[in-house]
Amino acid sequence: MKLRQLHYVQEISKRGLSVTAAADALFTSQPGVSKQVRLLEDELGVDIFVRNGKHISEITPAGKRILEYTARLLLEADNIRNIAAEFRTADRGDLSVATTHTQARYALPPVISGFRQAWSQVALHLHQGSPPQIAKMAVEGTADFAIATEALEHFDELVMLPCYHWNRSILVPPTHALALRYRDKPQELTLEAIAEHPVITYTFGFTGRSKLDQAFAAQGLKPDVVLTAVDADVIKTYVRLGLGIGIVASMSYDETLDADLVSLPVDHLFEPSTTHIGFRQGMFLRGFMFDFIQRFAPHLTRELVEAVAAIPDAETRRRLVQERIPKLQQR
């Protein structure tokens, strides 16, 4: 049994059972992958995959159990490499972060700027996607960290650490009725008043959209959402065109760049959302990884991160987080 063979079967399972896609991802040949998988199955004496002619159609029951352990073995192999790298060249390496547009555009720039100054020999890789895609990248090891607001809590394989709370603002042109009435008293703005206007906001599943929908539903209201996007800058563009009022994360409003829009904070109308950072349970974190986490969320000290990560059970981890981090910063 070789690590390369385990990589092959794991990659096939990740690539929709496509040997060709797995071979492309691993920069090798399809016949070579097929041969090595067959050799592994012959050595084990069981089939990992069910084949329909030349194509793989499903994973066998034995294969499903084998793949569970394959993932653990490959994670430990990565840990061994990372431990060696930490002692060999502590200031060099790679850090891969999967996140949403909002985090990459508004929350991460100062963090990454400071991190690059401190760790100039660490190559940083940013991947953007939807929260489920981001979580999947972290679970599968494509990314070291996942940073998002939605969906991460559904992946118990990840160690989830809360970073900060944030809330929303209404964006409208200065001549809009809401700006004229509530600019100096946004605390009086109501959900009913918002629901009277067409709304432009985030696509469902992105940037705390679920909290927004829940707030309207609780009041028996259904906002007229005429356009959705994953990017706050796109939302602002269509607000400027007069298509509707924007509901965005407050952090996405820039007083200089967005001076042509009025921002009406609506913290009193919506429950705050929480941004988390997640990584695979059991993953060895290098020194620069701990530093990146603490730059993004100063309360997440190395001692706290290690204490939470050491707990194998997801529910127990959540309880410890609640005990150790009773209050988060609001951004």
Question: What would you say this structure looks like, in words?
Answer:
The protein has 331 residues and is α/β, with parallel strands linked by helices. The protein has helices at 3-14, 19-25, 30-44, 61-88, 101-107, 109-118, 131-140, 177-182, 191-195, 209-218, 232-240, 287-296, 302-309, 314-324; strands at 49-52, 55-59, 93-99, 122-128, 145-148, 158-166, 168-172, 198-202, 224-229, 245-249, 262-265, 273-280. Helix 2 packs across helix 3. The longest helix has 28 residues, at 61-88. The N and C termini lie far apart (50 Å). The relative contact order is 0.13.
Task: Detail the topology: elements first, then pairings.
Layout: H1 3-14, H2 19-25, H3 30-44, E1 49-52, E2 55-59, H4 61-88, E3 93-99, H5 101-107, H6 109-118, E4 122-128, H7 131-140, E5 145-148, E6 158-166, E7 168-172, H8 177-182, H9 191-195, E8 198-202, H10 209-218, E9 224-229, H11 232-240, E10 245-249, E11 262-265, E12 273-280, H12 287-296, H13 302-309, H14 314-324
Parallel strand pairs: 3-4, 3-5, 8-9, 8-10
Antiparallel strand pairs: 1-2, 5-12, 6-12, 7-10, 7-11
Helix pairs in contact: 1-2, 1-3, 1-4, 2-3, 6-12
